[in-house]
UniProtKB/TrEMBL annotation:
Record-given protein name: 4-hydroxy-tetrahydrodipicolinate synthase
UniProt similarity note: Belongs to the DapA family.
GO function term, MF aspect, one: N-acetylneuraminate lyase activity
Database matches in CDD domains: DHDPS-like
Organism the protein comes from: Hephaestia caeni
């Protein structure tokens, strides 16, 4: 099986279900993993949507353990290892391999501003020492850094770097990336810009990583399948539906305000509680009630 065949499809950047005391909600974690896997989507734990920057190492390991156990080999399990300390990222990769994860995902360190050469050396050191395949992750909204596509292409030649998730927005950048990698059998391109899922998939994109898939994984799987079989009208229709869901919690909000609203939507769907890790704050009771009603009226037909 080539990398192009293995690391494709819909990847769900999982939220991290928490209790009111800030502990991992293992039952809810398994519930969300099962919903994703049943829809033929792969879980990605300890990423940005999962509030990884606010979780302890023990919580991240528990997330990986629960996800691997629930997925039970039916889908790949991706695990985030991003860290400002290289040795810590490598330690996580080794730990997650022992727990059964299939690949690790890492964005750049994000305290110091670093140049292109430093980016390259960081990822090469990580790829050389990680026992699991590495997927590069570009997310300027949190790191303050943008990975040049030429650098990503150079890094893609390393045998242990198998893919790239790009959450940076820009039509020109997206089309350039598609042109670079659509024909590669040993490297996969995943898009974290959910609003461009249909466009990307119709033009050679390998996978999508939409946050809203936590709530409606089957919709995104249907979008993926429609685009890949050439049903443009259906792919575009599903893009419109999923865009409406995403806009509800994202539009006009910074990321740390959007995630609590999204967790409230997940709570309304019975998937988890609305609790978040500081510095994020959960919604007040009246806001939770309002979100629950909106979810019921506007999106209830799409929930499983």
């Amino acid at each position: 099986m080539t990398n192009k065949e293995r690391y494709i499809g819909v990847v769900v950047p999982m939220i991290t279900p928490l209790t009111a005391d800030g502990d991992l909600d293992a039952a809810a974690t398994r519930r969300i993993v099962e919903a994703s896997v049943s829809a033929r989507c792969a879980p990605f734990v300890a990423g940005t949507t999962g509030e990884s920057a606010s979780l302890s190492d023990a919580q991240k390991a528990a997330l990986v353990r629960e996800a691997v156990d629930q997925a039970a080999g039916r889908q790949l399990v991706y695990a985030g290892i991003a860290d400002n300390r290289l040795a810590s990222a490598i330690d996580k990769a080794r730990e997650y391999q022992a727990l059964g994860a299939d690949a690790v995902v890492a964005h750049l360190p994000c305290y110091y501003a670093i140049d292109e050469d430093q980016m390259k050396r960081w990822y090469l050191a990580l790829a050389e020492r990680s026992p699991l395949p590495v997927i590069l992750y570009n997310i300027p909204v949190t790191t303050g850094l943008s990975m040049p596509l030429a650098l990503v292409d150079e890094l893609s030649r390393h045998e242990n770097i198998v893919g790239f998730k790009d959450s940076e927005r820009g039509d020109e950048r997206l089309d350039e990336a598609l042109a670079l990698w659509r024909e590669r059998e040993d490297f996969t391109f995943h898009l974290g810009w959910a609003a461009k899922s249909a466009h990307g998939l119709k033009n050679g994109l390998d996978g999508i990583v939409p946050s809203s898939a936590n709530l409606v994984p089957a919709l995104y799987r249907a979008l993926y399948d429609a685009a890949k079989r050439g049903d443009v009208a259906e792919a575009d229709r599903l893009q419109s539906v999923t865009d409406d869901i995403s806009r509800y919690y994202q539009e006009g909000r910074i990321l740390s305000r959007a995630i609590p609203v999204f967790k409230a939507m997940m709570a309304a769907a019975g998937l988890c509680g609305p609790d978040v890790a500081p510095p994020m704050q959960p919604l007040a009771d009246d806001e939770l009630a309002r979100v629950a009603e909106e979810v019921r009226v506007r999106f209830g037909a799409y929930l499983g």
